[in-house]
Amino acid sequence: MAKLLVLVAIALLAISIADSGSKVLAKATEHSEEEYMPASNGQGTLRTYQCPSQCTRRCSKTQYHKPCMFFCQKCCMKCLCVPSGFYGNKGECPCYNNWKTKRGGPKCP
């Protein structure tokens, strides 16, 4: 009888630990998209998974879409920033603005 009582107590303890552990795990993995959305387009405000969509927006009105997307994504992955608008506004992202080619021209579109 004592063995049965100990076994039941251990089972209840294991269930309560498992239940509280799953609540902590659920809390840790629960997040809203708002926490990943940048407040502004300043340097380092994006996550790497946001680069393709931001570069699609940035390069949507150029006739050189493929090179624009290639360099924009390269710059975004490094700087974690894409300036607002389709052209210009590079002052919002100093890293994006200051990265130059070997010839001294702008690397980022």
UniProtKB/TrEMBL annotation:
Entry keyword Signal: yes
Superkingdom of the source species: Eukaryota
Signal peptide: 1-20
Name assigned to this protein: Gibberellin-regulated protein 6
Organism ancestry: Eukaryota, Viridiplantae, Streptophyta, Embryophyta, Tracheophyta
Native source species: Musa balbisiana (Banana)
UniProt cross-references to Pfam families, sorted A to Z: GASA
InterPro entries: GASA
Family that this chain belongs to: Belongs to the GASA family.
Keywords: Signal
